[in-house]
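Notes, p. 3: input format for complexes.
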Amino acid sequence: MTEKLSAPRGTRDLYGEEMARFEAIETLARAAFSSMGYQQIRTPIFESRSLFERSVGDETDIVKKELYVFRDRKDRELALRPEGTAGVVRAYIERNMGAAGGVTKLWYSGPMFRYERPQGGRYRQFYQLGCELFGAKSAMADVEVAGLAIKILATLKINARLKINFIGCEACRRAYAESIRAFFAAKKEKLCPDCIVRLERNPLRVLDCKVETCRAERAGAPAIALCETCSAQYAEIRQGLSEMKIEYVEDASMVRGLDYYTGFVFEAVSENLGAQDAVLGGGRYDGLVAQMGGPPTPAVGFAIGMDRLASLVAADIRVVGPFLLVIGLGAQNQWGAMDLARRLRAASVVGGTGSVECALSEKSLKAQLKDADRRGFPFVAILGDGERERGVVTIRDMKSGEQKEIATGVADDELAAGVRRSLLA
Ligand code: AMP
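Output follows (425 residues plus adenosine monophosphate):
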C-alpha cells in the first residue's frame, strides 16, 4: 500500500473560504499601507542563519528552539525566516536605503516558519503582514505605526485591544535585568533549564518563556523602572495615542519575545481567540540597524498574524466573489458565450469586485443553473439558440428567478451598461 499523502505537521493548504479571507485581508491592508506611503518589499524566505541569531537574539525561543535550519550544497548554513523584520533590515542595509536621508517606509507579506508545537491558531508555517518605518525617532512615528496597525484591524471590523508598554533605553533595561535576576534568584530551581541560563545571559527572556512552570513563577515580577528621558518619551507616546483617539491599555509585563526591541512596544489581542490571542505585535528597535552593521537608524514596525486574523474576519469580508456566469446552451453556443464573457470583462461590467466567468460546459440549462447556484453566482447570462437568433442574451437573477433580455449587437460598453441596468432593475 502506498503511504497516504499529507502536508507536513503544522502546515496546511490555503484554499476556498480561508484563502478568500486571506485575499481580502491582504487587499485591505495593501490599501491601508499605500494610503500612508509604504512600499512593498519581498525578501527571501531563507537567509543566513546568523542573521536571525544576531537580530532576533540567540537566547530567544524563536532562535533557540524554533528555527528551521538547513545547509545548502555549498555547506552554507541557512534558516527559513521566523519573522519579517530581520530580512527587511538586512535589505535596508545592503541596498543602502537610508543614504538619501529622510524616512523609508516598507511593508511586506508572506510565510514565516517556526518549529512550534502546533495548536489552534499556531502553525509551523504561518503568514504575517507587517511594516517597518526607518529614520524617524519622534513619538509621532510610534503613534503613526501603532495607529496604522489598529486602522487595519478596524477596516476588517476586528474587535481587538491595543496593549502597550515601554521597555526603555539600554540603561533602563540593564537595571531591569538586574531586578529580574534578583526576583528569580530565590526560586531559580523552579525555572526550566533554559531559563536558568537566560537568567545569567538575558534575564528579560525569562518573562516570555512558554513553559508552564516558568509562566507561573513570574507572577509578581517587577515592572520596569524607567529613567527620566524614557518616562517622558513614553508619556508623549501615550498622549499622542489619545490625541489620535487610539484606545489602549498599559501592560507593564509585556516584553515581547524578540531581543531587538527598545522603547515602545505593543500588541493587539482579541477576546474572540483562544489561548493564542495575540493578532499583532510590534515596537521600536532603534539599535538594530547599527548592530547589524548599518548606520545608526531609528526604526519602528509591526507584524500582523494573518492566520489568526483570518479566523476572526466575517465570512462576507471577501472582496472578490463569483458574480456573473455566462452559460452557452449546446455546442453551437459555447464560443459565443465565451466571447460574451470576454466582452463584459473588457468593459469592467462589475468593476473588479466580482468575477465574470464562462461556464465551459455543455450540460442542460437545468444542470448548469444548479451548478451556478452551488458556486454562489447571484446572476447568470444565458445564450441559447433563440437568443443568438434574436441578437440578445438573457440575464437571470438567481435569487428571484427574474429574467431580462439585453441586446448583444452593440459596443462592449453599451452591452455592459445594459447588463448593469438589468441587474439593478
Ligand atoms: P511575533 O513575531 O512573535 O511578535 O508575532 C506576531 C504575530 O504573528 C502574532 O501576534 C501572531 O498573530 C502571529 N504568529 C506568531 N507565531 C505564530 C504561529 N506559530 N502561528 C500562527 N501565527 C503566529
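Residues 16-35 form the longest helix (20 residues).
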